[in-house]
Amino acid sequence: MSRTVLVVDDAAFMRMMIRDILAKEGYVIHEAVNGRDAVEKYREVHPDLVTMDITMPEMSGLEALREIRAVDPEARVLMVSAMGQQKMIVEALESGAMDFLVKPFQPTKVLETIKKCLQPRNP
């Protein structure tokens, strides 16, 4: 069974990089260009996991994370941030993000973190 991942980033090259890493492993990829788009696509697709950039126009990753978690408290969201955004990462984790990746990242680290986020939750 293939897993569905919604990749959210305002930078096309970052979406492409994550998409390429995951597609090679058989993940089904959907993309969103900002937080508002992410919330809409989440409602349509109900992905197994969302990779969410923190800093985006229109609606930040933090705002989108909160809206997605309001729609689906079980949503699995992995934040993606640039170096130096520790305060926002902490805020994202407190808001329900499962984990985070710091740019630039290695493909093995991306896959490892995504597999960890997709593991069955403890009852």
Task: Walk me through the topology.
Layout: E1 4-8, H1 12-23, E2 28-32, H2 35-45, E3 49-53, H3 61-71, E4 77-81, H4 86-94, E5 99-102, H5 107-118
Parallel strand pairs: 1-2, 1-3, 3-4, 4-5
Helix pairs in contact: 2-3
Query: Which sequence of strands runs across the widest sheet?
Result: 2-1-3-4-5
| CATH class category | Alpha Beta
SS-based class: alpha/beta
CATH superfamily: Response regulator
Output the number of helix runs: 5
How many strand elements? Answer: 5
What is the CATH architecture descriptor?
3-Layer(aba) Sandwich
Question: What proportion strand?
Answer: 15-25%
Which fold name corresponds to the CATH topology?
A: Rossmann fold
Oligomer: single chain
Using brief descriptors, characterize the structure shown:
alpha/beta, 20% strand, five-stranded parallel beta sheet, Rossmann fold, 45% helix
Word description of this protein:
The protein is an alpha/beta fold. The protein has one domain (4-112): Rossmann fold (3-Layer(aba) Sandwich). Helix content is 45%, strand content 20%. It has helices at residues 12-23, 35-45, 61-71, 86-94, 107-118, and strands at 4-8, 28-32, 49-53, 77-81, 99-102. A 5-stranded parallel beta sheet has the order 2-1-3-4-5, sandwiched between helices. Helix 3 (61-71) links the parallel strand 3 (49-53) and strand 4. Helix 2 packs parallel to helix 3 (61-71). The model has no long low-confidence stretch (mean pLDDT 91).
The gist of it:
By secondary structure, this protein is of the alpha/beta class. It has helices spanning 12-23, 35-45, 61-71, 86-94, 107-118; strands spanning 4-8, 28-32, 49-53, 77-81, 99-102.
